[in-house]
Design a protein that fits this description.
Length: 161
C-alpha cells in the first residue's frame, strides 16, 4: 500500500498541514531521541553506581586485599582508600545523573571528568603491572565512552542545551 498524497485530504492548505505533520513528527522523534540518550547515560553510569555501592556497603573490605597487594599499603589504609573511592564513584555518578536530568551541563561535566579520572587511576593501579590487556582495553573503552558522553551528549545534543 502506498500513500497517495495527491488525493489525500489535507485541508484547505495542504502545504500547511504537511508542515504541521512534519513539525509534530520531528518533535516526537526529538523527544524519543532525548529519552534514548538519557537512558544511555544511565547505562554508562550504572557500572560506577553498582561498583561504588558495593565498596561503600562493604565499608571498603570488598577490594581492600586486592588494593593492598597492588600498592603495598596496610590493610587499614587500603580499606579507607577503597571506601573513599566508592564514595567518589557514587558522588561522580550522581553529579552526571543530576546534570543530565536537570539540564545542567556544568555539573554533568564535572561528574564525567571525575569518572574519567577515577577510571584512569584504577586502570593504572590494577592493570599495568603486570599488564593485563583485556581489562586495560575494557577500561580504555569506558574512558572513551565517558569522553564521548561528555562531548556529544552534554554539549552537542538537545539533552543539556
Amino acid at each position: 500500500m502506498t500513500a497517495d498524497f495527491e488525493s489525500a485530504n489535507l485541508g484547505s492548505n495542504p502545504s500547511g498541514s504537511l508542515n504541521t505533520f512534519s513539525l509534530h513528527f520531528f518533535y516526537f522523534a526529538n523527544c524519543k531521541m532525548e529519552l534514548i540518550t538519557k537512558i544511555s547515560i544511565v547505562f554508562i553510569v550504572l557500572m560506577f553506581i553498582i561498583s561504588g555501592t558495593n565498596k561503600t556497603m562493604s565499608l571498603g573490605t570488598s577490594e581492600m586485599s586486592r588494593f593492598t597487594l597492588k600498592t603495598g599499603l596496610s590493610m587499614d589504609v587500603s580499606q579507607m582508600i577503597v571506601f573513599a573511592a566508592g564514595l567518589y564513584e557514587l558522588i561522580a555518578s550522581m553529579l552526571v545523573l543530576y546534570g543530565t536530568f536537570n539540564k545542567d551541563s556544568f555539573i554533568a561535566s564535572i561528574g564525567s571528568y571525575m569518572l574519567i579520572l577515577f577510571t584512569i587511576l584504577a586502570t593504572l593501579i590494577f592493570y599495568t603491572m603486570p599488564f593485563k590487556y583485556k581489562p586495560f582495553l575494557s577500561n580504555l573503552s569506558v574512558i572513551a565512552g565517558l569522553y564521548l558522553m561528555l562531548n556529544i551528549c552534554f554539549f552537542k545534543s538537545e539533552i543539556l542545551v
